[in-house]
Write a structure and sequence with these properties.
The protein has helices at residues 41-56, 60-70, 75-90, 92-102, 112-127, 132-146, 149-162, 167-175, 181-188, 193-205, 213-220, 238-242, 266-270, 278-288, 314-326, 337-347, 365-368, 394-397, 400-420, 440-448, 458-465, 483-486, and strands at residues 226-230, 246-247, 254-257, 273-275, 304-307, 329-334, 355-359, 373-379, 421-431, 453-456, 474-475, 478-480, 492-498. By secondary structure, the chain is of the alpha/beta class.
Length: 500
Amino acid sequence: MTPQPDQPNKHRNDKGHERRRAAVKTRTAAAPGQRTRAADPARLVAFEVLRAVSGEDAYANLVLPKSIRKHRLDKRDAGFATELAYGALRGQGTYDAILATCVDRPLERLDPAVLDALRIGTHQLLAMRVPAHAALDQTVGLARAVIGAGPSALINAVLRKVSARSLDEWVEMLTAGEADAVKRSAVEYSHPEWIVRALRQSLVAHGRSVDEITDLLRADNDAPVVNLVALPGLGNLDEARAAGAVDGELVKDSALFSAGDVGRLDSVRAGTTRVQDAGSQLVARALAELKLDGSSLDEDGVEKWLDMCAGPGGKAALLAALAHESGAVLLANEPAPHRAQLVRQALEAVPGETWNVRTGDGRTIAEDYPETFDRILVDAPCTGLGALRRRPESRWRRQPSDVGELGILQRELLTTAVDAVKPGGVVAYVTCSPHPAETTAVVADVMRKRNDLELLDAGAALDAVSLPGALEAGHENTAQLWPHIHATDAMFLALIRRKI
């Protein structure tokens, strides 16, 4: 065997002394061999939701259940994924302000997937009971699995900077020296500045103090409890109660459910129990149960009801059930064919002789049905500023210009409705927004042009259908519900009677 030359000892220097081994630089709290390289399923679900929302303009409430089922999350992991996804979306404004100080480039220059991963990591670090080392390790592991090793290093470095302060410390640093209360609130409570201004204006317009703005913004950031309604005469809440639901405190046949996936309930799958905010239940009942003087009835004595903007069908289902109980009939109108199909599906639990679905522009309905209906619901398309807690992504999508554009449509729909209602009948104008440009201004503009309309007391109508205890929602004959007061979406209601 040919002798081999001596090989230098790689652990000794040229003087024969043993080299000191350099400390291993870790990119996470774990050593390289222990570093997470796979995506935790719950965090992966949250990441998929954020990517769909930011990359595809998807709605979180539609994407999340599908992703949870796809990854077969159990109840605990599904709850974690829900809080992580919705929390990251609600806190996006605050988190982006924090991240902007921790990244060496404008956030818009980051890969959108990287930015979404950073938002998920930031929410875990600052707003969830997740140990910092776990939040870092799992977020980096997620990034390695679905984005790549290179970006994971950046994510690790940025999140370490984020973890150096608490959320309160970050907010204090970001708002230090800022005299503008709106700008401070926008950062602290993660709302666009224009929405903070709009909500301050809304409180005053509906008879409340502007000092309530902090409570309102906080309520927007609270995770809402699932509200259920049993369709009157068709469903009940026994199964929901057995699964942990508790009776609602505002309106009969309602319950609050926080025991996991409500879609697993047989009654929900059957459509006799539905997910519906208590505010929506109240405004639908206020219209359906309002006492009319009977002057609008035809000779057959059957009331005709219209849901002018029915998609996707939640209020239409409750109205149809109430119509069935009272012997009335309901026409549900929806302009978009795919949403009209959703309305039909929502109404399937109600006997078919009670309802019909029209697919068409609501603004043309008076041409086909002039002075036809005894009760009309105009649940008008709006900015949705009253449902930011349920649709957290909408606060980042809406723009101030949307208010004016939607206002034109709202006025046209309400004008059509008062042409389609019979003399003696009532139109309920409803929006899931408290913005005065979408609520009281629309009602005032339409009524100003006619002398055959009168405004009924909407607050009293809500009180009449609520459980004992005044809602205190009325102001100058209209009514406005609030998340921070009633724990509902900020639903607006005006009841307009066409004089005989």
